[in-house]
Write a structure and sequence with these properties.
6-stranded parallel sheet; 13 helices; 7-stranded mixed sheet; Quinone Oxidoreductase, Chain A, domain 1; homotetramer
């Protein structure tokens, strides 16, 4: 079969590799029908994640069809259409039993396209298939739910739920890339009074408005602290969601929040930030960090089915099976191409 | 001044009475600009609440203008436009300090139009004015917020929040009168997957659909338990909200709910219900009761201002200052008149 | 092997039966080292649970040693000492993924000694062994943890946690049998101000004091509502835990609770109760029911190990392997024998 | 009257000043019967809080007797014995209505001995007396409850409740001064499995053991991260409470916590800390900061009365009315004097 293979910083290739086989009795082999590329795939491509080694097949998001299952798989069957989630869960360790699958101690967590071969391939081996895949609801297309493999549960759990967005809140989302847009659209599920998008690019702020922000602040032009103060009676936002992953944007989030408010970090950080405890120690703030657990995936699937959530609107570009390299280029140059998320169909 | 005065079961009159004066230094005298009639006013009128005595001015919902305040009132000033809430809060007792104003031990609770004279008058004395009134947001009309005096916080707190409605939930609302419609519309703030209205009247079910129900069941015609089972994989609803106040509708709510689900009672009950513990003891259900506290009023005001909540859509009929008796007749005969809520302007 | 076999109402026997074998690859066969008898075993013995059929081996609580496991069992190994819990969990269904194992939709729940053969035997087949057993902490004896198979997680989850006991609370426990005593002792983990035991028998009230109640009320002699009012400033208790299972005791619990308080039902009920909604509708109370889920078992094991919880104090009587019938008689006649919990060692 | 007056960095005096008088109708004048000195008083004395100006009477903790009240005070009466809390609450602002009194927008918050004259005097003016004092329970001595004026609610709310300590948890408290000891003793209300005290001084670690720590780590000698790893299976503590106020101790707390755990900052910080987001972003941690609100004071008073909490054990030294300067010296040199908290009786 063919797959996107990582060969060290800056080097990926769509090349022939061995088709995966069942290694453990809880594995499933899934034919990949639709797959996308994540910001963290770009990090790997750049060499930011040295634990990813030469020869690794990338990708941790897919919708596919089960080709075969191990003898220990109970609830997933050949022919089932499934969502392959970015998080793999052993289902029995302490953290899995708490729904904290991202911290799985039994061999799961974020492993696909990271510690084991991933989904940007014609076929993928999915460990712990019973607790790491979700049946595609009847009537749903691949694209209706593909974004539930990562960005939507990430933004919903780590941003909106950790941040405890509530009706009437003023919510600031710092960064309006795909994760920030996911946070904006999923924050809307809780009917906040205002969702404020903050970004340096007008194009992303424009997208933010289409995804549910009613106020947009270009923080290259306008002071977001002052702008937020003016719409919150000087107090600050109820919830600030960090969706960039830089010290400066995290520190901005901590300056935007009101006494008693929440800062929910979603961003992937590569270096420490400064925490201004000399100002924050009296301010009753709550800061959360988190890797997605995907415990919300069943809820998000229901919201797609019942029409509360339009998950396919993130898809801006489609590519044919052999166009992975073009797809990576398009996604990587989002500033020029306007790409939010790209979709490929490797198995056709 | 003139006021609606109760003279025993079946007897109310719009008649001349003494204008109220400040009795305690925390009182305010408010000119009533807009007022409505509540289902509980009809209960009083029928004689169901014997604690309401001859001579009592009715009414516990109003928007008005402050005419004068006692020397102990700090934050409310002559000329302020305020929402007069159905719940009066001393602000210092144990329950008020927990935000449980409906259970106030310091002389508050539901007293207006009940233990003391109420709002269906040209002027009303509001005790504990600092903690029992809310400033009208700039730009909001009386009608934009009048329903926040009672039915919306009641349905939101006692139905939606006590019931813990969450995104993706299936919510059943038993009874589609004004309180049931308020529950339906405020449940939508949490993006449930489905809101099922259950009522005996097609006209009310039709209204329910306009207020946010996507499924309507006439339980005089169709078995709601079977209908709910068919749309919930046999499990039942996540949240069942009782908005009628009869043993049969409460018992229905307990039959509709899934294992682990919530039954939130809003209905005003005059007799005991049967609780089928022989079936429910293993079912992990949570049943809540409650009088409104109005702790959510500031949130609801924000939601009206920011456009998440259309509170004035409940108003179906308007009456001139002297038409209180006609207004009561219209509201009481809602089946024929189609009245949801009526608005009067006694002070004009 | 030998086992306690049910042969219809009033008829049980300790008799020779076939030793269990692995039926599914997720099964374990466990040698039963220590086992106890539950109040629900007495209900079965009396014929109250018609779903239990002739030939069924009873029992759903044990500590044992793993003899063999199916090929799909990952974390439990031959020779492991394990706690066999009253609740079996498939680990993958909707409810298991929420930790609501008692409602398992995948073939688990309370099945041992109920729908399949149980633990009052020399060996027991435990389905879904990975998610239905718990390793015995090093240094712990069988008796240290045997009560964690049922009564302690039941009282802790369904009574104390559902009732949300908090520091300083006044907690009433209605019924001071083994479950009530478990509720009393586990409520103490949250440092309530007072724990009030209510029972008709002075002997059980005496036991209640030893297990942590500081106030004891014999409700055959004293009016508990008045007694509670006098120690709570007329308001009622913060949490009332029902641990009997009769309409009268449930209704008593609802009369004891303060506005805003919780009624947590643990009792097994055979008939409906009356819910006085005409009084309770305004009182902001929360009523919960529940089957134990055993999600708290890991926590309770830690509390035994660290010395916060003395679980072996419930054991009043010990029996040799062949004395099951005597053990049942002793437990059944607790009023005379003073039995709380009995322990047998069938495998010796 | 006499009072402790601040005259700039390093200069305080017990000197004659004017007796306070009622300035607002919600004020009370309280005769100070017992008073203590806080760590923040030492900060003021050193000049760390420039907002405190020359002439200010210090102190924000007292038990006293009401001498007179303004006309707007409803629930506090001449002759009442009251606890004067470190936090003053207007009772009507947005934050006070949420119980977040420390953030009071109506003129309260931490003002006593900070923005207005305080309690280290023979008499003190207490603004908003109805919502800023608590009646002394009958039978309680001044010393039984004096520590409820600040250190116990601070440690309980900002450390234990913000950190969500639960039964069975492993809790680390970094810093074993009076606030750390308060955190240790109030954490025990939730029955944690282990409470680990971490400090540089063996004398404080010894005190920590007496207040409820079962493990003591001298982090000048032993690596606390390794020590904690060894007792938590390599995962880290459930809750890390920072009770020092330095960048290094805060950063240590963030290294001690397990995935999914809580870091509760109580320490008063004068400079920023480094937040290692490059490690923490995936770790699902929650960090909280906070000024005490004193919403827990009624609960703590109940716990003292019912015997769950021994608050007077913090008092190591007593001083006569005129010995304030000696008392400050004793408290300031705690390393030599072994002082935890000192008590003075200025009004005798």
């Amino acid at each position: 079969m063919k797959a996107v293979v990582y060969h060290g910083p800056g080097a990926i290739a769509w090349e022939e590799v061995a088709k995966p086989t069942i290694l453990a009795d809880t594995d499933a082999i899934v034919r990949v029908d639709s797959v996308t590329i994540c910001g963290s795939d770009l990090h790997i491509w750049k060499g930011d994640l040295p634990e990813v080694t030469d020869g690794r097949i990338l990708g941790h998001e897919a919708v596919g069809t089960v080709e075969s299952v191990g003898t220990g798989v109970k609830n997933v069957h050949r022919g089932d259409r499934v969502l392959v989630s970015c998080i793999t869960a052993c289902g029995t360790c302490r953290f899995c039993r708490e729904g904290r699958y991202g911290q799985c101690l039994g061999g799961g967590g974020w492993i696909l396209g990271h510690n084991i071969d991933g989904t940007q391939a014609e076929f993928v081996r999915v460990p712990f298939a019973d607790t790491s895949t979700y049946p595609v609801p009847s009537g749903a297309s691949d694209e209706d739910i593909l974004m539930l493999a990562d960005i939507l549960p990430t933004a919903y759990e780590v941003g909106v739920l950790n941040g405890t967005v509530r009706p009437g809140d003023v919510v600031a989302v710092v960064g309006a890339g795909p994760i920030g847009l996911s946070a904006i659209t999923s924050a809307r599920l809780y009917s906040p009074g205002h969702v404020v998008a903050i970004d340096l690019a007008y194009s992303r702020l424009e997208a933010a408005k289409q995804f549910g922000a009613d106020i947009a602040i270009n923080n290259g032009v306008e002071d977001p602290v002052a702008a937020i103060a003016s719409i919150t009676g000087g107090l600050g936002v109820d919830v600030a969601i960090e969706a960039v992953g830089l010290p400066a944007t995290f520190e901005l989030a901590t300056k935007l929040v009101r006494p008693g408010g929440h800062v929910a970090n979603i961003g992937v950080h590569g270096e420490p930030a400064t925490l201004h405890l000399e100002q924050l120690w009296t301010k009753d703030i709550t800061i959360t960090t988190g890797l997605v657990d995907t415990y919300s995936t069943p809820t998000l699937l229901k919201l797609v089915t019942s029409g509360q959530l339009d998950a396919k609107r993130f898809v801006t570009h489609h590519f044919a099976p052999d166009q992975f390299i073009e797809a990576y280029d398009t996604f990587r140059n989002a500033g020029e191409t306007g790409a939010l998320k790209v979709v490929l169909t490797p198995s056709r």
